[in-house]
Amino acid sequence: MDKIQHTTVPTNGIKMHVASIGTGPRAILFLHGFPELWYTWRHQLLSLSSLGYRCIAPDLRGYGDTDCPAPAAQYTSLHIVGDLVGLLDGLGIQRVFLVGHDWGAIIAWHFCLFRPDRVKALVNTSVPFTPRHPKASLLAGMRAVFGDDFYMCRFQEVGEAEADFGAVETGKLLAKILTSRNPDPPCLPKHVGFRGIPDLPALPSWLTQQDIDYFASKFDRTGFTGALNYYRAIDLSWEVMGPWTGAKVTVPTKFIVGELDITLKFPRMKDYVVGGGMKADVPLLEEVVVLEGVAHFLNEESPQQVTNHIHDFFKDK
Fold it and tell me: If DSSP codes are grouped into helix, strand and coil, which group holds residue 250?
């Protein structure tokens, strides 16, 4: 870990913290999700850099040591992809291999829609591609299916989720989220919230107290508003992405998901992913991998499997 370099790169009006290791022309850009940091990719940074890749993992806008603009309107997919294009320009990289997880996967899909010229190939994880519905946003669709207690809906009111999270020691809160193995989409009444999820009896073998302490130290400093702003900008992202209605992801793609991932429990999603439906929207989708017995945070829970799948896909591209 001490070989990982940390730098700050100005991009798109913000300063972005970047962790990187490795050299050479074959660069991989890793995009983390919620509630994560560059650190979620620590295993892949080390293992893939040893295989000859230049590995780059930023803290995304609003996270960790990257700037955190206050308005939620500054967290649309256009903003985040703009940050990443500026990052690549600042590093002198024209085209990258792209890897995403959770919100990072959503941003990776949109990166490939907006700027396919900058992406050699994509390995995306956990969150399948969701084509833009012409009449309703993702948030509206989720609210219609799961109601106001669905976690994305709970995150909309500024201050509500922050207060919920603040009622629990940050390390315990993150441990609850990162180690959850309940595949049902989270619906949490306001009087229960995330604070009402039972504490773990012990951390699993793949997540140490040192890992939790690192994540917690950053969120204790920044709070969660920046991270929550991605959810609060869902409707605005839908509005500004009107020109991409019907657009397809046209880069070579591999998709990996855990068998216990909550996304597979969303209506019709398992058939869309595993049954071949996603191929219509991602025509260069070459493979879908379901990791048996693995939950949402697959890059942490099963790091070597994920590394192997990434390398197997990128090595001949």
Answer: coil
231 is catalytic: yes
CA dist., res. 80 & res. 98, Å (int): 14
Indicate which residue of 32, 110, 296, 309 is catalytic: 296
pLDDT digits (tens, 9 = 90+) for 185-211: 899 999 999 999 888 889 999 999 999
Clarify whether 149 is annotated catalytic: no
- Per the DSSP assignment, residues forming a β-bridge with 228 are none
Choose, from 53, 75, 230, 231, the residue flagged as catalytic: 231
Phi, psi (rounded to 5 degrees) for 4: -75, 130
For the chain (length 317 residues), average pLDDT per consecutive 10? 96 98 97 98 98 98 98 98 98 98 98 98 98 96 95 96 96 96 90 90 96 98 98 98 98 98 93 94 98 97 98 97
Neighbours of 93 (CB within 10 A): 15
Which position among 59, 67, 83, 102 bears the catalytic label?
102
32 catalytically annotated:
no
Per-residue HEC secondary structure of 75-109 comes to CCHHHHHHHHHHHHHHHCCCCEEEEEECHHHHHHH
